[in-house]
Amino acid sequence: MRALASLVALLVARAAAIEEDGVLVLTASNFQNKVNEQYDTGMMVEFYAPWCKHCQALAPVYAEAAQALKGDVVLAKIDATQAQALAQQHGVTGYPSVKFFKQGRVI
Q1: How far apart are the first and last CA of the chain?
Q2: Which pick of 7, 38, 40, 52 has the fewest CB atoms within 10 Å?
Q3: Strand blocks (E) in the chain
Q4: Residue 14, class by beta-carbon neighbours within 10 Å (0-12 exposed, 13-18 middle, 19+ buried)?
Q5: All domains in the chain, ordered by first residue
């Protein structure tokens, strides 16, 4: 029973998203659930690459915007180099790419 509880706790922790400077950090495994959680309010998602200089320049501005908009709209980011299929599915061809999701789809 203890092993089962530990496994459940581990799975919940892995599915939970973390925040960096107010920006929700997404992964391929939690992306759709987190987008769906913001079904009515929407979520802005930055698809980035860690090595991208433009992405690095955007990071502090994006974090500032996330803080300013907290409670109104969620700003999130996903490392597109780690979620290539997801990035391709959403038409990402360069970095950074910012897309706004509402009602589970890009608008």
Answers
A1: 45
A2: 40
A3: 18-20, 23-26, 43-48, 74-79, 97-102, 105-106
A4: exposed
A5: 17-106 (3.40.30.10)
Burial (CB count within 10 angstroms: exposed 0-12, middle 13-18, buried 19+), residue 107: exposed
pLDDT per residue of the chain (107 residues) written in tens, 0 to 9: 665 554 444 444 455 679 999 999 999 999 999 999 998 899 999 999 999 999 999 999 999 999 999 989 999 999 999 999 999 999 999 999 999 999 988 99
Give residue for tokens 């913001």.
38
Whether the bond into 60 is cis, omega within 30 of 0: no
Could you give the residue ranges of the DSSP H alpha helices within 22-83? Answer: 31-37, 53-69
